[in-house]
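the six lines:
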Amino acid sequence: MATTGRSDASERTVSMDEFDRYRAELNERLLGSNHLGIKRFFALDTQAYEDGALDRRTKELLGLVASTVLRCDDCITYHVKQCVGVGVTRPQFLDAFNVALVVGGSITIPHLRRAIDRLDQILDKQDLEAAAPPKHE
Amino acid sequence: MATTGRSDASERTVSMDEFDRYRAELNERLLGSNHLGIKRFFALDTQAYEDGALDRRTKELLGLVASTVLRCDDCITYHVKQCVGVGVTRPQFLDAFNVALVVGGSITIPHLRRAIDRLDQILDKQDLEAAAPPKHE
Amino acid sequence: MATTGRSDASERTVSMDEFDRYRAELNERLLGSNHLGIKRFFALDTQAYEDGALDRRTKELLGLVASTVLRCDDCITYHVKQCVGVGVTRPQFLDAFNVALVVGGSITIPHLRRAIDRLDQILDKQDLEAAAPPKHE
Amino acid sequence: MATTGRSDASERTVSMDEFDRYRAELNERLLGSNHLGIKRFFALDTQAYEDGALDRRTKELLGLVASTVLRCDDCITYHVKQCVGVGVTRPQFLDAFNVALVVGGSITIPHLRRAIDRLDQILDKQDLEAAAPPKHE
Amino acid sequence: MATTGRSDASERTVSMDEFDRYRAELNERLLGSNHLGIKRFFALDTQAYEDGALDRRTKELLGLVASTVLRCDDCITYHVKQCVGVGVTRPQFLDAFNVALVVGGSITIPHLRRAIDRLDQILDKQDLEAAAPPKHE
Amino acid sequence: MATTGRSDASERTVSMDEFDRYRAELNERLLGSNHLGIKRFFALDTQAYEDGALDRRTKELLGLVASTVLRCDDCITYHVKQCVGVGVTRPQFLDAFNVALVVGGSITIPHLRRAIDRLDQILDKQDLEAAAPPKHE
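prediction for all of em together
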């Protein structure tokens, strides 16, 4: 599934690298302001997705669907990436997207378009890296 | 965990039986109107939670968290009941509520209060039924 | 279509008369506070549904669907009543509800249950009044 | 401003005492479940309204308007009570409601009706208590 | 009404052609994944706007206003285009925008800015095509 | 605090000047359409933030937090600028952001990232202008 060039046609997506860089830089700026409440909230946010009574994989899927019905593209992008990291497969993503679509309605569709675009960018990159010859030796 | 009398103090909850009856009666009225689009939507809604690439239990949890961040009490009640039916435990509910709380913020708290009230009503009833002596020989 | 007794089973609906009375009384209290901004907003709200480039009937339908996807029961009740007043038929209501359902998703279903309940209460009352023998000679 | 009997006409409000009791009981049930994330969130929620770079009064007003545009009746009731406690006057409430109304639109009106009803219940009670003869000597 | 150059100043709009291309390509990717639920939802979405008890023109206006109060730019763009296609006039659009503005509040204004920008782009293009000399002969 | 180059990394922000230009141009187009309801709404919107029972500074903060929990980037940008104009300090902004974060949840975080980016752009520009040598003499 070649995504080369697809991001050119994209309405408002930036590359995954740019997304990560902006997100990291501005999070640092928010946290660097040393507001205790904001810092503690960020800690709670991280902890909410750790293994507990529910495992991390289920929680990341919960975060993904919550972000989708609330229609926050950046949150969706973040959770798509996390879900790929804990082994969620493409058919499982589609099942989760379908729950979000039924609960949240057609208003979620533009977000699902960008979500599958992101998902395929991440999966493509993963495939490329897996296919790459070892870097030295 | 005795819930006797708790529903008296409730802000706007009705008994689970009344909830089920009103829900069934009005769904029937909506569907009985024979609007093809509405009937098909209801079918899609049912199918979205069936076993697939993700299992039904995960999907019911997705439905619960989506309903919580969108703050729909009746949807929460429905999914709490479904989740209990597929074996979600109280600590797992709390983990799911926590994800919803972090994603959706304090604005979800009144809904979480009613959600845990409902959950305990359903679990209490289950306990009562399990503890009941066999009805006849 | 007899609705007798149905409101007993209702989750949170009150009679149409009580709804109207509370609404009128509290609107008066809001407006009686003489806040110029609030008074002007209420005037704009009334004018928005008057005949213009679009006719009142279309605008009331727009108000109904907007209220449904934003999931405001009291706003839905109000616009259902207004729509009945300008001649929207039950099949047309179902078509409008279906648009709201598709756009807004299953999260709107509890509101659609209450909406059709309200609609039938209003239509039943209308039928009763039409069927009543003339009050005096 | 006599509110006697007004709550009878109310669509879905319960008395302020019942509200407080249910809220306290269910918060305790949520917190008594000992979910660390939920407990910490509640602590953050309390701290967010304490004096800081902005004073508590301004923060309670922020909480009130945020709750109004997000249309959460129980959150509005809570912040109305807190705002009265830190000296927000009725004309200031109306100014805050007006900002919420302009930002959030007519969809907030049913919530503003209930908000002013609550506000007047609380102010009436305060007046009654102030007017009461000293309880002993 | 010349729109030349205006899209340069635009906050986040892309050309209508790019919008259509991205939308078509990603819809195809979503549907090409062969998830039965998603495919059926897309079919329901299409059918919801076909002539029925309400005509297509009214339904497209309902879709437009629903999209505006839910603040989904891509959905607004889509329905603006559909509405132009079924003959909705500029003054009628303004009437529909006004209903959305009153119901949804000032928070919809940035979306209305982009909506009228899109609308004029589409109307300008239509005018240009109507004014163009026949391509051959 | 040098912001040079930061907008390159931005997900979707444009320069403050472009933002202002697009906003002014399209507002003019909306108002130039001479729809009385829309014109009156814009007037109400302006008046809602003027000194009254609450002062303008408090009202701008209310507008900022309302915009943040409703997650409208352009509204946030506008109110950040207004708040800076009436003397809100960076620590006060962080306190307001924290209230919005707690009420609205982690779903507001991407908007807070862009909000602090905008805030720092505006504060940097202010510092530059204050540090600039007098233009003549």
